Amino acid sequence: MFIQKVLRVNSKRINKYLCRCKSSLSNYDSNENKTHFGFQTVDEREKSSKVHAVFESVAKNYDVMNDAMSFGVHRLWKDIFMARLSPTHGTHLLDVAGGTGDIAFRFLKYLNTLSPNPSTKEIKGKVTVSDINQHMLDIGKKRAEKLGYRTGENIDWLLADAEQLPIENDTYSAYTIAFGIRNVTHIDKVLDEAYRVLKPGGRFMCLEFSHVNNDFLQWVYDQYSFQLIPVMGQVIAGEWKPYQYLVESIRQFPNQEHFKAMIQSAGFSQVTYENITFGVVAIHSGFKL
Ligand SMILES: C[S@@+](CC[C@H](N)C(=O)[O-])C[C@H]1O[C@@H](n2cnc3c(N)ncnc32)[C@H](O)[C@@H]1O
């Protein structure tokens, strides 16, 4: 009885919270220069500095918190993501919003599992990790050193906004963005840039939190996200707000079909998506033909 009562009260609180989210979304739709930052409606110019502040404050605990919040499952999602990309000899990858390097390191590790190129006897592939936050990149560089990857050899680091990449047209054969695109101000500009910097034949792949396709699981997921994640942020990292932003930003991100349509609008072909863990995350893929 007591547990039922607690769950009912909590459900009401979460519903109220989600209604606030919907009303902030309708504000967002009706104001051209407004956007969302979690459930808040903010001026477009404010969003990137607010997002920057979030990642500035979480950078030092970023990897520990990822493990804690997902019980390590984010590692599995990233492994699946890399297996779907299945890079080969010569893949030239741009990992945007690459943070502390998780995707880049998986890419290099994956290449090492391939047998050497029969003609050159070498395993070759290169990755550029790009992020708007130098602090995240610095942590990535330290991790790379520990793993024995040398900057300039098979990994490069680029401080850049995903909406305006300082990269020439048709440069990379693959573009990845993992848990990054929901933080940007203009998703459409990021997709346009992805299309521009990819070579014809190049592949775009995105790993992002998405929308759960089962009502009961959605309810469990909401309880976990809104009741526990900010508390874990406070206890483990001494920060509540960035982790509240994290769960709110997940709810604001377009659903699987909507995001697929956005990727197609940017010009990509053969756009598909795959739900993982009932849609908690989804992998979207498209080609520049
Ligand atoms: C949740 S982290 C993901 C990091 C990494 N891809 C991973 O999967 O662990 C999101 C990253 O997006 C970066 N970011 C946010 N807005 C960005 C933008 N406009 N351009 C490039 N990076 C951005 C943040 O600095 C942060 O490092």
Explained architecture:
Mean pLDDT is 87; it is low at 1-30. The longest helix is centred in the first third of the chain and has 29 residues, at 2-30. Helix content is 51%, strand content 20%. It has helices at residues 2-30, 44-58, 62-70, 73-85, 102-113, 134-147, 187-197, 215-237, 241-252, 256-265, and strands spanning 34-37, 40-43, 92-96, 126-131, 155-159, 172-178, 198-209, 269-276, 281-287. It is an alpha/beta fold. A hairpin with a 2-residue loop joins strand 1 (34-37) and strand 2. The strands form two sheets. It has a seven-stranded mixed β-sheet with strand order 5-4-3-6-7-9-8, sandwiched between helices. It starts with a helix and ends with a strand. The chain has one domain (2-287): Vaccinia Virus protein VP39 (Rossmann fold), CATH 3.40.50.150. Helix 4 packs across helix 5. The protein contains ten helices and nine strands. It binds S-adenosylmethionine. S-adenosylmethionine is lined by residues 48, 51, 55, 96-99, 102-103, 131-133, 136, 161-163, 178-180, 183-184.
Protein traits:
289 residues, Rossmann fold, 7-stranded mixed sheet, 10 helices, 20% strand, globular, disordered N terminus, binds S-adenosylmethionine
Short description:
The chain is of the alpha/beta class and 289 residues long. The chain has one domain: Rossmann fold. It has helices spanning 2-30, 44-58, 62-70, 73-85, 102-113, 134-147, 187-197, 215-237, 241-252, 256-265, and strands spanning 34-37, 40-43, 92-96, 126-131, 155-159, 172-178, 198-209, 269-276, 281-287.
